[in-house]
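ESCALATION

Customer reports they have been waiting on this structure for their group meeting. Please prioritize. Original submission:
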Amino acid sequence: MEYIGYFLVAIIALIIIVKLFAWPIAILIKLVINGVAGAVLLFLVNLVGSLFNFSIGINAITALIAGFFGVPGVIVLVVLKLFI
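Update from on-call: job pushed to the front of the queue and completed.
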């Protein structure tokens, strides 16, 4: 009978551990998706912008903004480039 109690405690502990690790993994997956979307959009903006003599320089700052914020970050970079 004791083994059933140990088994239940082990199952509950396993569920708690999985939940604790699942949350950071979900955030990491979201950051990777934002980064890829931002990089692709930044490339497309430079590709299409080259037809109109418009480009956004790819450096550490623009890469971080596009990678961390994704599509909204690239939109902010385009707006800043247009007005500055």
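Sent to customer with the following note: The mean pLDDT is 88.
Escalation resolved.
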